[in-house]
Amino acid sequence: MGLLKLDIYHVRNIQQQSIKPSEHINFIFGENASGKSSILEAIYILGRAKSFRSASIKSVINTQQQHLVVAGQLSHQHQIQQLGIQLDGKAIEIHINRQPSQKRADLAYALPLQLIHPKSYELLDAGPQIRREFLDWGVFNHDEHFLQAWRRFKKALSQRNSLLKSKQSQQLNVWDKELAYYGTIVDVSRRQYLSNLKPVFLEIIKKFLDFEYLDISLVSGWDTEIPLLQLLEADLDRDLRYGFTHSGPHRADFLITVNKQLAKDFVSRGQLKLLVLSLKLAQVQLLANKQNAMSCILIDDFAAELDISNRAKLLEFLADLPCQVFITATEMADFGSVELIKNYRLFHVEQGNIKQL
Ligand SMILES: Nc1ncnc2c1ncn2[C@@H]1O[C@H](COP(=O)(O)OP(=O)(O)O)[C@@H](O)[C@H]1O
Ligand SMILES: [Mg+2]
């Protein structure tokens, strides 16, 4: 399962390239500024319809061109699927099996991507937003009902907040019910997911770190002993005063603790990186355990972030993972003992040209 063919047009310094990746591990090496990250960016665009490096897609499009195109042929459950995306900085055109689609979520279901790059390590450092996104990526791929509940919750929240801002408390009642109903589903799905993720995470982290009392737990965003609807009603005065909803799953977070202390206040930078890496691998492993699911891991700047011994451990882990992987580094030697991998392909990038070796 995975991308069998990838066509990239006009993504940064890549004009027009086509590659046939391995369904397991793909090593991509080349000098600085040769276009390695741009390949991963193209794959990311295919799965998420956005870049992981630039907020504006305009800067990703080759400077001499008006639009970019990424197309992929995926094998999934013994069927071939065609994905295509064209972006011109304003409009997005998505094609799945040559049929136009309006939904980014369709792409994301077809090609679940996990990205590990230098900025990923902010996961445990930055504000709760990126941890919620991380968690929801997992829930979204795990529980097919989640997206619908999440969307209805978001809509109710935004309606409620605009009524609060304009002090129209008489209409709040309807949205309170909707928010509480779908918000509770979102919370239950997250909790369920995290309880599945936890043992997988604790098993993986053991390969990299030796922590005795490591824990991961969900913060719901309200005191779940009290029904959310009741809390929304009790909070009304405060919510009206501030013009936003204080309680609900939009305030959720998850915490990693080591010896009952928050990991980010307790562990070293290097250890924090390994915690994040293990969390991401745990999500992929959990998805791989699920029948008929596939996912694709993108690892940018392999050597910049991990020392030799952890790189070897990571590669050993990936070798056994039924997953497609793309890894970049400047030197081939940075990948370590690639012979351990049964089914790998090696690509060299030079000035936007990709050659399979
Ligand atoms: N919109 C663009 N059009 C053309 N070239 C670009 C564009 N954006 C970035 N580049 C160039 O593309 C090259 C490849 O960048 P990148 O993929 O980050 O390289 P690597 O990851 O191999 O170091 C760089 O030289 C960069 O300056
Ligand atoms: Mg790069």
Describe the structure.
The chain is of the alpha/beta class and 357 residues long. The chain folds into two domains: 1-112 and 295-357, P-loop containing nucleotide triphosphate hydrolases (Rossmann fold, 3-Layer(aba) Sandwich); 119-293, Up-down Bundle (Glutathione S-transferase Yfyf (Class Pi), Chain A, domain 2), CATH 1.20.1050.90. Helices cover 41% and strands 24% of the residues. It has eleven helices and 15 strands. The strands form three sheets. Strands 2-1-4-5-6-7 form a six-stranded antiparallel β-sheet, with helices on one face. Strands 8-12-13-3-14-15 form a six-stranded mixed β-sheet, with helices on both faces. Strands 9-10-11 form a three-stranded antiparallel β-sheet. β4 and β5 form a beta hairpin. α5 crosses α6 and α5 packs across α9 (269-289). Magnesium ion binds at residues 36-37, 300-301. Residues 12-13, 30, 32-38, 59, 61-63 line the site of adenosine-5'-diphosphate.
The secondary-structure class comes to alpha/beta
The percentage helix is 40-55%
Regions with little confidence, pLDDT below 50 for 5+ residues = none
How far is it from the N-terminal to the C-terminal residue, by CA?
A: 22 Å
Mean pLDDT equals 92
* CATH fold call of the largest domain: Rossmann fold
Radius of gyration from the CA trace?
22 Å
User: Could you give the order of strands across the largest sheet?
Assistant: 2-1-4-5-6-7
Bound molecules: adenosine-5'-diphosphate, magnesium ion
Number of helices: 11
- Total strands: the figure is 15
**Principal-axis shape:** globular
The CATH homologous superfamily of the largest domain corresponds to: P-loop containing nucleotide triphosphate hydrolases
Largest sheet: 6 strands, antiparallel
| Structural domain tally | 2
Class of the largest domain, according to the CATH hierarchy? Alpha Beta
- Beta-strand percentage range: 15-25%
Order of helices and strands: EEEHEEEEHEHHHEHHEEHHEHHEEE
The CATH architecture of the largest domain can be named as: 3-Layer(aba) Sandwich
